[in-house]
Amino acid sequence: MPTKTHVRTYLPATQEALELMGLEIAAARKARKWSETTLAERAGISRSSVQRIERGSPKAEVGMVFELASLLGIPLFGDDRRARLASSREKAPLLPQRIRTSKPKVSDEF
């Protein structure tokens, strides 16, 4: 009996962000005159992973994408990344540990 496969779909904004990051990584790599193999070796990943990232595949691990961007000097989250990180670290303890949703009231009056 064949199993059902669930095809994951992504929002257009997500697809555009993946494509943009992939194109920026490819452009920065080429500007440095690095081959895909060179970048892969520097990042400690496979060449096929670099190709997947540059194609904008949503299957690529976000950590690998950020690693390549950092290696190539592509700014992540703008110039104020460290200030935003410090601010987020200050706010994190003030946020609730978990979110509870209220259960809908059941009307048992017939």
From TrEMBL:
Taxon lineage: Bacteria, Pseudomonadati, Pseudomonadota, Gammaproteobacteria, Litorivivens
Domain HTH cro/C1-type: 25-76
PROSITE patterns, sorted: HTH_CROC1
TM stretches of this protein: none
Protein name per Swiss-Prot or TrEMBL: Transcriptional regulator with XRE-family HTH domain
Gene3D superfamilies for the chain: lambda repressor-like DNA-binding domains
Pfam families cross-referenced by the UniProt entry: HTH_3
Organism name: Litorivivens lipolytica
Region (Disordered): 87-110
A GO molecular function held by the record: DNA binding
Cited CDD domains: HTH_XRE
